[in-house]
Design brief:
Layout (H helix, E strand, L loop, with lengths): L4 H11 L3 H10 L4 H19 L6 E8 L5 E9 L2 H4 L2 H17 L11 H17 L4 H19 L5 E2 L2 E5 H12 L4 E9 L5 H16 L1
Antiparallel strand pairs: 1-2, 2-5, 3-4
Helix pairs in contact: 1-2, 1-3, 2-3, 3-8, 5-8, 5-9, 6-7
């Protein structure tokens, strides 16, 4: 079947993939837009896995200060070459990640960065909650694992739903950009500062304000 330019354009909008990749995806899926999106995402994951071991020592350190100086973020995002580091798509990615951090307030970069004692304590709390809710003993472990995954998705940057498109995680956003730019990309570290940090009411107000700004 013929592939229209409009379909290619729409698929590019949805996935940020290149024109040739979009045409190929639509051909492989007989023009089915949803299947083409899945095809490109799977292709991107495979390509990202191949590049994951390649050294990424270039990149950018981005600073984001929320209006009024209430929240500040520093984040380092690495790529393989200075050429890509100067690319507008990479710069936009880093900027979007910094704003996401400001809005979503992750405590850790990935699940692997959560201290073992924190995970153990969280499991203990979740198990007690499940038992107190009257859940059968034989399903408690499954319930704990499910709720623990929710804990990771709320507190780990790479596991969080991306603030501008919650159909994908931040990790999936990175994978898409690896496929688009052709280099290994990773978030190395970040720091988030909040005015009056430790004052619970103020923290909640600032975070909600930043989230609204980013989403709108």
């Amino acid at each position: 079947m013929g592939i229209s330019a409009a379909d290619v354009k729409e698929l590019r909008r949805k996935t940020s993939a290149g024109i040739l990749d979009c045409k190929q995806a639509l051909k492989e899926t007989d023009g089915d837009m949803e299947e083409a999106v899945n095809y490109l995402r799977e292709k991107g994951i495979a390509e990202a896995e191949k590049k994951a071991d390649r050294t990424a020592a270039e990149g950018l350190v981005e600073a984001y200060i929320h209006m009024g100086g209430k929240i500040g973020v520093l984040v380092e995002v690495n790529c393989e070459t200075d050429f890509v580091a100067k690319n507008d798509a990479f710069k936009k990615l880093v900027d979007n990640i910094s704003m996401h951090i400001a809005a979503a307030n992750p405590k850790y970069l990935s699940k692997d960065d959560v201290p073992e004692e924190v995970v153990a304590k969280e499991k203990e709390v979740l198990k007690t909650q499940a038992l107190n809710d009257g859940k059968p003993e034989h399903v408690v472990e499954q319930i704990v694992e499910g709720r623990l995954n929710k804990f990771f998705s709320e507190n780990c940057l790479l596991e969080q739903p991306y603030i501008r498109d919650d159909d994908k995680t931040v990790a999936e956003l990175i994978t898409e950009k690896v496929a688009e730019l052709g280099e290994n990309i990773n978030i190395r570290r970040f720091t988030r500062y909040e005015l009056g940090e430790g004052i619970e009411v103020e923290e909640e107000d600032f975070a909600a304000e930043v989230k609204n700004e980013v989403e709108n």
